[in-house]
Specification:
binds iron/sulfur cluster; two-stranded antiparallel ribbon
Length: 210
């Protein structure tokens, strides 16, 4: 197994995608006068799965920047998170457990947080490859604002499609155009932390005979 690390160019590409997303997010948030400040909720306890090696590797670039003790504490919290999720799932509930990266209410890896963490809150839209559109109304606070301001039909949501397309291209490049040959990623952040950085069983130019 070989650890998958992002090159400087790939890090630049991913940060550029995040920056574009940030601009889109701010455009919509400004239009609605929306912010998380003062919200009694904390969305870092939402249960999300993530799907790219690129983001997994970038998360680990952030983990490596922490002191060793902090890294150990983070992985310990991630293990506890997984136990709590398992308990919830065993009792038939969708887990709602605080993300292990959230320390004292703040994201410990803010620069390295994942795409989903960056899009939650405001209305957004995705057009799937089959042409079908999916709409996300935003969090409950945002939905209340939209309702109060009567902007349901006028607000232009965050358009995630081109950014997700760019992320898919980056992912494919990172996997040497053999994305289809590698196991699919479908992991919580905690699982990404407990498993360690992403590894590939075969690399550039090698065939998967296994
Ligand atoms: S996204 Fe919405 S629900 Fe979540 S913390 Fe921000 S305002 Fe609150
Ligand atoms: S990575 Fe950071 S922003 Fe994302 S859920 Fe965890 S603590 Fe929250």
């Amino acid at each position: 197994m070989k650890e998958l690390r992002l090159s400087l160019n790939e890090i630049g590409d991913l940060e550029d995608i995040y920056a574009e997303l940030q601009k889109e997010y701010e455009r919509v948030a400004d239009e609605l006068n929306f912010s998380c400040t003062g919200c009694p909720d904390n969305c870092c306890d939402s249960y999300f799965l993530h799907h790219t090696y690129a983001e997994w590797a970038y998360l680990w670039e952030g983990v490596r920047g922490l002191a060793e003790k902090e890294q150990e504490a983070l992985v310990d919290r991630a293990k506890k998170y997984l136990e709590a999720c398992e308990q919830a799932q065993l009792s038939g509930q969708r887990p709602q457990v605080m993300c292990p990266v959230n320390k004292d209410g703040l994201c410990q890896l803010y620069k390295h947080r994942l795409l989903v963490c960056r899009t939650h809150g405001v209305p957004a839209k995705i057009t799937r490859p089959d042409g079908q559109s999916m709409h996300f109304p935003g969090c409950f606070v945002c939905q209340e604002i939209v309702e109060k301001q009567g902007m349901k039909d006028t607000v232009r949501p965050v358009e995630r499609t081109p950014l997700l397309r760019r992320l898919a291209l980056l992912e494919n490049k990172l996997l040497h155009m053999k994305r289809h040959l590698h196991p699919k990623v479908k992991l919580t952040i905690a699982e990404m932390l407990v498993k360690g950085p992403p590894e590939l069983s075969f690399g550039c130019g090698e065939e998967n005979n296994g």
